[in-house]
Amino acid sequence: MPISVIGWFVFDHRDIFAKVADEYGLWGPGALAAVMTTVFIALVFASWRNTAFTLTADHLDYRCGLVWQVQRRIQLSQIRTVDIEHPLFGRPIGVRAMTFSTANGPTKLAYLGSRAANRLLDAVVVRTGASSAKRSDEGVVARVSATDLALSILLDAEVIIGLCVGGATSFIPFITSGHALTLGLALPWLRSAWRATGKRFPQYHGWIVREVEAGYRTESGLFNKRQYTWQRDRISSITVHQPLLWRSRNWVKVTGGIVGHKDLLLVPVTTRAQAEKMLVRIYGPEVLKLLDNPVRVAPRARWCTLWWRGCAVSSTQDFAAGWRGLFLKQTVTLARITRVLGVHITQGPWQRLHNVAHVTLELPGGSHVRAINRNTEEATQIARTVRSSAVRTALAGVPIARRAAR
Asked: Are 334 and 279 in contact (CB under 8 A)?
C-alpha cells in the first residue's frame, strides 16, 4: 500500500519531477532516493536494536518500538501456536522471525538468530508441558507436491469464478470509455488475483506436516520459509473442504479452529484418505463413524435453502459434525463435544413457517458446528443431547485437555 501511494504521488506530480531531472540530471533524483533509502534502513535498524524479550518460567515479556514503546506479557500457558519464518533476504545472514499466537492475537519477535530462535522455541515448548528433545521421532504425516499444489490452485472453481467476474467488472470502464486512467480501477482486482493464485504457490510450496512430541508442525515456503507448531489439545474443530473441480481427484483441504486462528491451514491439498488418517491421529478411530453416517435434512428444507441436499449432521457420544454446501464447495466441520462452549437454536419467520431451525454449537476461537434447517423437534433433541453430553463430561472430573490429547 505505501509503495502504491508513493507511485501515484510521483505519477501525479510527474511534471515537477521532470523539471528537476532536466535541471540536475539523473543525479538529483538518484541522490534523493539514496537519502530516503538510508533513512529508512537506519530507522529499521534502530527499531530492531530496541526490540528485546525476557523468558521466565511462566511468561514471556516483549518490548519493541522506537517512538511509541510497546510492552507485552504473554502467559506461556496461553500460547496456541508458534510460527517461525525464514525471510528470503534474512536466510543468508541467519535471522528468523517468531510469532506466538494467543487468544488476544499474535505477537511477533523479529529478528532473531537461528540459535536464539531454536533455543526460544525449545524453551517455550518445554514450559508449555511438552518436550521437543527427541527430534529424530518426528514423522511425516502429509506432504504436498508442487504439481498437486499448482493444479489444485488452477482447479479451484470458486476462485476462478470470482476472478472472472471481478476482472470483467474492473475492465468495463476502460472498454466503454477508452481512457487509460480507468485501468487504475483494475488494480484491486490484480491484487486479489495475485493473492488468490500466484501468492499461494510460493507460500504453500513444499508443504509438510510432521508429528512431533509437542503436537504437529507444518513447514512450507518457496522464498520465505515458515514453520507452525500447534498442539493437539488446542484444536477446537477441524474442517474438511472439497471444491467442485477437486472431486474427480478426491482432493480436500483441511483447516483447524484454534483460539487465535479461526481457520488455521493444516493441509492446502491432500487426498481424502490421507485427511482421514490425520483425523484418526488427532481424534481417534471413532471419528470415522461420524463421517460415514450423515443424516440429511427433511425435504421441506428445500424451501429454506437452495443447496438443501448438501446439508447434514452427524453426532456420537463424543463428537459432532455438520455438513454444508453442494455445488462450488462442500465442507464438513468436526469437533469434540467436550469443546462446546454453548448451544443455541435460531429460527427465522420463514423457517418457522416450514417448521425447521438451525442448531449452532459454539467452540473456542470463534469456530462453530452448525446443523442447518433441521426439523424443529430434531433441533431441540440435538441441543438437549449435546448439553447433556457436555454436563456428563464435566461431572466425570477428567480434564478436557487430557481427554483431547488421547
From this structure: yes
